[in-house]
Amino acid sequence: MVTGRECTPADFWASERPIVNEPMLDFIGVDTLLAELVLAIGLAVVIGNGLAFYKNSRGEKPEGVDEQSEFRPSRALFLIAAGVLMAAWSLASILTR
Asked: For residue 15, how far is the Cα from the chain centroid?
């Protein structure tokens, strides 16, 4: 901290005081929050597209879908693979901390 003279904006930002209380960050778990959110989204993508793939194999269509729309298995498989990649990466990030 600067003492004995007026504090400039550069001095203010160069000070070593914490902006947020560190025990509060530990309590909330901000450092793993993003990885947990990506894990949840990845698992939701896998489950949703897996369920759509399963229902299509049984000949069922979702409610509210018109007869002209078609199921695209390549898109569902791509999204399942992307969801697995997201979930695996975020789980590895969580476990290595």
From this structure: 33
